TrEMBL record:
Organism annotation: Kitasatospora cystarginea
Cofactor: heme b
Residue ranges constituting the Ferritin-like diiron domain according to the UniProt record: 30-177
Classification via PROSITE patterns: FERRITIN_LIKE
Keywords, ordered alphabetically: Iron, Iron storage
Presence of keyword Iron: yes
Top-level division of the source organism's lineage: Bacteria
Parts forming coiled coils: none
InterPro entries per record: Dps-like (IPR014490), Ferritin-like (IPR012347), Ferritin-like_diiron (IPR009040), Ferritin-like_SF (IPR009078), Ferritin_DPS_dom (IPR008331)
Record's protein name: Ferritin-like diiron domain-containing protein
Length: 177
């Protein structure tokens, strides 16, 4: 069976030339770009606050299982920062500026920055699991809201979502042990 593909490259070229001044080639179709950027800046804030929380927990963790939990927190912290940078790059691709303003990070984040006073591992694991579950739910809603109108942004959010789901599972396993 033959599946033919006939591309009209001349037509595609003409259409591309007509859209040269219309903004980024990867912008969403039918989405308010300002609203998308605002939502993505909240995701940046969420990831930076997550990085801060995981880093603080890795440094201050106490207890018998400290080394294993610290390694997990360090991995999750690294991942959170990579997520923040990836989302910031997407914001830039959309023709806007990422917002890393420390004065507003905590207010814009979907999760909070918290650390048990005593450095107790169980409390840290519980706080991070709660945060991961919140992030999974909010990122799922963001991906659903974007829908098919901005495939590049949706794919990015879904990749973050997959990582956050894995993080939640790892934290839940440690709590169950």
């Amino acid at each position: 069976m033959s599946y033919g593909l006939a591309l009209d490259v001349d037509r595609i070229r003409r259409e591309a030339l007509q859209t040269m001044s219309a903004g980024p080639a990867t912008s969403g179709h039918g989405l308010d770009t300002e609203r998308v950027v605002s939502v993505l800046n909240d995701v940046v804030a969420t990831e930076v606050v997550g990085w801060l929380r995981y880093t603080r927990h890795a440094i201050s963790a106490q207890g018998a299982d400290r080394s294993a939990v610290r390694a997990l927190f360090d991995r999750h912290a690294d991942q959170e920062m990579r997520h923040a940078v990836a989302v910031a790059e997407r914001i830039n691709q959309l023709g806007a500026q990422p917002n890393f303003d420390p004065a507003t990070l905590a207010q814009r984040a979907h999760t909070d920055y918290s650390a048990p006073d005593d450095g107790e591992l169980r409390g840290m694991l519980e706080q991070n699991l709660l945060a991961a579950r919140i992030v999974v739910s909010t990122y799922q809603e963001v991906a659903d809201w974007i829908g098919d109108r901005d495939p590049a942004t949706r794919q990015l959010i879904e990749s973050l979502l997959a990582d956050e789901q894995e993080n939640a599972e790892a934290l839940a396993e440690l709590l169950a042990a």
